[in-house]
Specification:
The chain is built from 15 helices and 4 strands. The protein has about 325 residues and is mainly alpha-helical. It has a single domain, classed as Ammonium transporter fold, CATH 1.10.3430. Strands 1-2 form a two-stranded parallel ribbon.
């Protein structure tokens, strides 16, 4: 089995560390929402890796372990009730149009997991926004059932959707621990923060990017909140809801689709944080972080080029 894996997959130590950081979040998704979360994850990984193999086999290249990370991240952004066919179409689209059309691993401009998530969000809004599941509690939680009780958006939804509809905010403790309705891997602030610590400690993700996103978010959120904007929630509530922490830690730090320069990471991250608040407060979308990161991906190469041009100019001036 190990020999077959080595022949099929490109060994990537960085990606393996990301996978390790995601394991507790994956287990929590099963505990909170049921065994369906695990089966959905396996289904998406199978389709995603098969899609990449289909394209890479022509060049006799192995599948990148980054494809597994893409599949895991994408699945964790989905609601527990997402139909298998919708999830499958999304990951196939994300791998093809978010990665392979640019030349495969290391050449993609956009984060493939977010390309997949954005595609299903726009094309299949009903299963992606109208149906959620109540989180399980106690022992064995979701490990003893296929799927927890399903609710529709009219009776109970995610904390961010409830805020947009009624202005009510969920318990901060519930948001921190994760026992709230939401996407599979985005509910527990505690586990995401622990993953962030691990990724930073192992130098597997840029702390500058994470800090920059947080800085941009806090600046814009605090400014608009204290200016009295009714559509912008309390900064702490916004920080712990809507997938903000998950996007900050795992999506914005993608080494391929984010800037390479340190200065660029700060500009890029601050841009994402600011745009997230604007989208959340004044657009139709409750989350915002997904579209903000894709916008950041668009400008990442230009930001790096601008930083390099400025440094070259400064060298010439001081020469």
């Amino acid at each position: 089995m190990g020999i077959v894996y080595k022949q099929l997959f490109m060994k990537q130590k960085l990606m393996r560390k990301v996978i390790i950081s995601l394991f507790p979040i994956c287990l929590a998704s099963v505990y909170f929402f049921g065994l369906r979360a695990l089966v959905l994850m396996i289904w998406v990984i199978a389709l995603g890796t098969l899609t990449e193999w289909f394209f890479e086999r022509r060049n006799k290249k192995p599948i990148s372990e980054a494809a597994i990370v893409t599949c895991m991240l994408y699945t964790l952004t989905l609601p527990p009730t997402t139909p298998f066919w919708v999830a499958g179409i999304g990951i196939i689209f994300g791998i093809i149009f978010g990665k392979e059309v640019f030349g495969g691993f290391g050449k993609n401009i956009f984060n493939p997991a977010l390309v997949a998530r954005c595609f299903v969000y726009v094309n299949f809004p009903t299963p992606l926004t109208m149906y959620w599941s109540k989180p399980a509690s106690g022992f064995p939680g979701g490990f003893g059932m296929w799927l927890t009780e399903t609710v529709d958006v009219l009776s109970q939804a995610t904390p961010m959707l409830i805020f947009r509809d009624s202005g009510q905010t969920a318990s901060y403790l519930s948001l921190f621990l994760g026992n709230v309705s939401g996407s599979l891997g985005e509910t527990s602030g505690l586990l995401i923060l622990l993953a962030a610590i691990y990724l930073i400690y192992t130098k597997s993700a840029s702390w500058q990017t994470m800090a920059a996103v947080l800085t941009g978010y806090l600046f814009m959120s605090i400014s608009l909140f204290f200016m009295g904007s009714a559509t912008v929630p309390n900064p702490l509530f916004g920080l712990l809801s809507g997938g903000f922490l998950f996007g900050t830690v795992f999506m914005s730090t993608d080494p391929i689709s984010s800037p390479m320069t340190v200065e660029g990471k700060w500009i890029y991250g601050i841009l994402i944080g600011i745009v997230t608040v604007i989208i959340r407060g004044y657009a139709l979308f409750a989350g915002g972080i997904m579209f903000a990161i894709l916008i950041g991906n668009t400008f990442a190469p230009l930001i790096d080029e601008g930083i390099k041009a400025y440094k070259n100019y400064r060298k010439k001036v001081h020469a």
